[in-house]
Amino acid sequence: MPAPANTLLIEGSFDELADELAVYIDNLKKAQGDEGSAVQSDVSKFLQEGKKDEALKSLVGASSVLNAAPEKELIAAYNLLIHISRQSENVDMFLNRICRNLSKPITSSPANGSGLALSVLSTVFNIVPPSDDSRYHVLFAILEVIRSSANFESLKPQLQQLDSWLVQWDMDEEEQRKLYLAISEVAEEAGDSDSAYDYLIRGLRTIPTNEASGNEARPLALRALKAALVHPSHFDFQDLTALDAVQALRKSDETYFELLELFTSDVLEDYNDFKDEHDGWIEQEGLDGAVLNRKMRLLTLASLAAHAHQTRTLPYAQIAKALQIPSEDVEMWVIDVIRAGLIEGKLSQLNQTFLIHRCTYRVFGEAQWREVAGRLDMWRSSLEAVLGVIRREKQQFIVESASGKPEKPKDVGIVD
Amino acid sequence: MDDKDSFLHLARPLGPAQVGAQPVTAPLSVTIQPQAIFSILDHSLRRNPDQDRVIGTLLGTRSEDGTEVEIRNCYAVPHTETAEQVEVDMEFQKTMLSLHLRANPREVLVGWYATSAELNTFSALIQNFYGQQGDGTWPHPAVHLTVSTEPGREIEARTYISAPIGVTAERADESCLFIPVPYEIKYGEADKSGLELIAAAKDSEDRSVGVMGDVESLERAIEQVLEMLARVSNYVNEVIDEEASPSNALGQFLMNALSLAPKVDPADIERDFNNHIQDVLVVSYLANTIRTQIDLSNRLATAALTLGPESTGGATGGEGGQKDRQDRRGDRNKGRQQQNRSAES
């Protein structure tokens, strides 16, 4: 059963409601010193002639003054306007106009203005049928308000439904990209670099293969690449390398692509070679060298741990050598890598070794999949064995209790 | 119940300002405990045949800033609805509310429910009644929960709060805009296994199902895990055979999860299991012994009363090996004899 289509419940005919709203708008205008306002007379004239749309046009046209309404009445007045706009044939046109009004600042309530605007905008969004692509434009208006109020937090959980919305609205790739990029920018401004990166990648995925090397794709791919490189907690570069647009950089921006490959699978030594080869390039491109160095060290340690997964131990000396750090700093680095979530394990100061419990594989290839399959089989076989034991015990228990063998201490019974 | 409608909830309408606090427009979310849904469904089953829907009051808790509402409890409120008017027994509602609050002082009034997904102008009236100043949820918005109870259809729940609509006071009283808000039905682990047990009876003829013992549920759980493992390894094998497209994130996740998977030897398990069984048997032996002792001492106490001091020794003879018990009994019997004597003299 679909949700109730109508959530605006108000009694009264179109004419009555339109008239009331017109009076209200006139009063507001007068309060602002605009004595010549005559929305009501226009509206009543149109209504008498039966021209609903004309009446609505003059109402919606004058509705920007509602932004100056007292904050308690603002939502009620806008809701009424939405309600009567819905009774027209050209509802999209009016809603569009209302959205534009709401994107402007609300003068009467500087503190809660964005909240009020968001509240009305989400009402507009909700009353448009889910499959109608007008929602797409309303969402843009919402993003505009979110951007001006730096309120990305409240939008973020709602964006989980974004994928299903895009399917429902039947958007083409270009429109999808526009939306993803807009969200990414808003997130960036709100300081949420994780989400910003996430939506940037999703935007990049919408670029078709044949346009991957185009002029539009290149700056985006570069932006994503830079963001991923300097992001303090982003360590998986395989999603980037899988993108067509990023692959296209192999031709246009060789050095960047080389750097990406280094970060995908290589270790600190290779990175240092790269730095020697392209002296000053990192600074020149505005990348933070310190961040990159640190990240490379963390990744190198993860690789080391992955190589040592047979023995599950790493001597301190080996870590110090690979990371090119003094041996007294080893523990600090290991703790940093653990904190970054790349590995888990225990430090043994006595034996000067690091015991690995779990490690992240930077490149997840066939060997790793085989290992997963092997572990799954192992788990399953041991569980099956457990199940066998339980079944046997149960059987035995039933047999024993059936044969009347005193399994339970019944013989302590009461003498009466 | 889990197909969500697509809607946005970004900000709630501006509520009246509390003293000393800024009015907030932070969005709101609702958590529903399953027992509230159950009593709503029960109420819907017991309604009069001529009533399309029945309503009731929701009780629960609200976080300090009012952004999280948890519905824990509810009770039915009688009402009649005709084409022209709706009547809600307000006196009943008030009395019930005060009684409930006395029994559960931590719960507060959070809103109301209706057993139909439909919203109409009467809903708006009732919503305004629940949200009003004084007896209502003011200054917080009242939550309206609709649970569709059409036979043969899926049960769907929806939660709303309301915003005013209209520019004149008379209009605003009788109307409102329902704003859908996200909700979540929260099951605890215990609730869930209880519900699963009850649901197991739904396909059987006599509508009854036995409660499983520990060993059976352990067996069942292992079977379930094996089933899930089979599904996962199916996927992994497909990846290895290059039939399914590999996902690095998924692989990494599996690897992490599996690094903790225990490797156990069947012989170890058998030994541990038997050891554990012995422990359990010892516990149950001890529990039985204690129960017997309690029973025994009760009987002895009454035996002394009914049979008098002379015959008690014969009644319990041969049983025991519990020295201290006999001693105590002896003491008690002594006391009894003294009493009897003093009564005679």
UniProtKB/TrEMBL annotation, chain A:
<comment type="similarity">
    <text>Belongs to the CSN7/EIF3M family. CSN7 subfamily.</text>
</comment>
<feature type="domain" description="PCI">
    <location>
        <begin position="193"/>
        <end position="361"/>
    </location>
</feature>
<comment type="subunit">
    <text>Component of the eukaryotic translation initiation factor 3 (eIF-3) complex.</text>
</comment>
<dbReference type="InterPro" id="IPR000717">
    <property type="entry name" value="PCI_dom"/>
</dbReference>
<dbReference type="GO" id="GO:0001732">
    <property type="term" value="P:formation of cytoplasmic translation initiation complex"/>
</dbReference>
<dbReference type="InterPro" id="IPR027528">
    <property type="entry name" value="eIF3m"/>
</dbReference>
<keyword id="KW-0648">Protein biosynthesis</keyword>
<protein>
    <recommendedName>
        <fullName>Eukaryotic translation initiation factor 3 subunit M</fullName>
    </recommendedName>
</protein>
<dbReference type="Pfam" id="PF18005">
    <property type="entry name" value="eIF3m_C_helix"/>
</dbReference>
<dbReference type="GO" id="GO:0003743">
    <property type="term" value="F:translation initiation factor activity"/>
</dbReference>
<comment type="function">
    <text>Component of the eukaryotic translation initiation factor 3 (eIF-3) complex, which is involved in protein synthesis of a specialized repertoire of mRNAs and, together with other initiation factors, stimulates binding of mRNA and methionyl-tRNAi to the 40S ribosome. The eIF-3 complex specifically targets and initiates translation of a subset of mRNAs involved in cell proliferation.</text>
</comment>
<comment type="similarity">
    <text>Belongs to the eIF-3 subunit M family.</text>
</comment>
<dbReference type="InterPro" id="IPR045237">
    <property type="entry name" value="COPS7/eIF3m"/>
</dbReference>
<dbReference type="GO" id="GO:0071541">
    <property type="term" value="C:eukaryotic translation initiation factor 3 complex, eIF3m"/>
</dbReference>
<dbReference type="Pfam" id="PF01399">
    <property type="entry name" value="PCI"/>
</dbReference>
<dbReference type="GO" id="GO:0016282">
    <property type="term" value="C:eukaryotic 43S preinitiation complex"/>
</dbReference>
<dbReference type="GO" id="GO:0033290">
    <property type="term" value="C:eukaryotic 48S preinitiation complex"/>
</dbReference>
<dbReference type="InterPro" id="IPR040750">
    <property type="entry name" value="eIF3m_C_helix"/>
</dbReference>
<keyword id="KW-0963">Cytoplasm</keyword>
<keyword id="KW-0396">Initiation factor</keyword>
<dbReference type="InterPro" id="IPR016024">
    <property type="entry name" value="ARM-type_fold"/>
</dbReference>
TrEMBL record, chain B:
<comment type="function">
    <text>Component of the eukaryotic translation initiation factor 3 (eIF-3) complex, which is involved in protein synthesis of a specialized repertoire of mRNAs and, together with other initiation factors, stimulates binding of mRNA and methionyl-tRNAi to the 40S ribosome. The eIF-3 complex specifically targets and initiates translation of a subset of mRNAs involved in cell proliferation.</text>
</comment>
<keyword id="KW-0648">Protein biosynthesis</keyword>
<dbReference type="InterPro" id="IPR037518">
    <property type="entry name" value="MPN"/>
</dbReference>
<feature type="region of interest" description="Disordered">
    <location>
        <begin position="308"/>
        <end position="345"/>
    </location>
</feature>
<comment type="similarity">
    <text>Belongs to the eIF-3 subunit F family.</text>
</comment>
<keyword id="KW-0963">Cytoplasm</keyword>
<protein>
    <recommendedName>
        <fullName>Eukaryotic translation initiation factor 3 subunit F</fullName>
    </recommendedName>
</protein>
<dbReference type="InterPro" id="IPR027531">
    <property type="entry name" value="eIF3f"/>
</dbReference>
<dbReference type="GO" id="GO:0033290">
    <property type="term" value="C:eukaryotic 48S preinitiation complex"/>
</dbReference>
<feature type="domain" description="MPN">
    <location>
        <begin position="30"/>
        <end position="166"/>
    </location>
</feature>
<dbReference type="GO" id="GO:0031369">
    <property type="term" value="F:translation initiation factor binding"/>
</dbReference>
<dbReference type="GO" id="GO:0016282">
    <property type="term" value="C:eukaryotic 43S preinitiation complex"/>
</dbReference>
<dbReference type="Pfam" id="PF13012">
    <property type="entry name" value="MitMem_reg"/>
</dbReference>
<dbReference type="InterPro" id="IPR024969">
    <property type="entry name" value="EIF3F/CSN6-like_C"/>
</dbReference>
<dbReference type="GO" id="GO:0071541">
    <property type="term" value="C:eukaryotic translation initiation factor 3 complex, eIF3m"/>
</dbReference>
<dbReference type="GO" id="GO:0003743">
    <property type="term" value="F:translation initiation factor activity"/>
</dbReference>
<feature type="compositionally biased region" description="Low complexity">
    <location>
        <begin position="336"/>
        <end position="345"/>
    </location>
</feature>
<dbReference type="GO" id="GO:0001732">
    <property type="term" value="P:formation of cytoplasmic translation initiation complex"/>
</dbReference>
<comment type="subunit">
    <text>Component of the eukaryotic translation initiation factor 3 (eIF-3) complex.</text>
</comment>
<dbReference type="InterPro" id="IPR000555">
    <property type="entry name" value="JAMM/MPN+_dom"/>
</dbReference>
<dbReference type="Pfam" id="PF01398">
    <property type="entry name" value="JAB"/>
</dbReference>
<keyword id="KW-0396">Initiation factor</keyword>
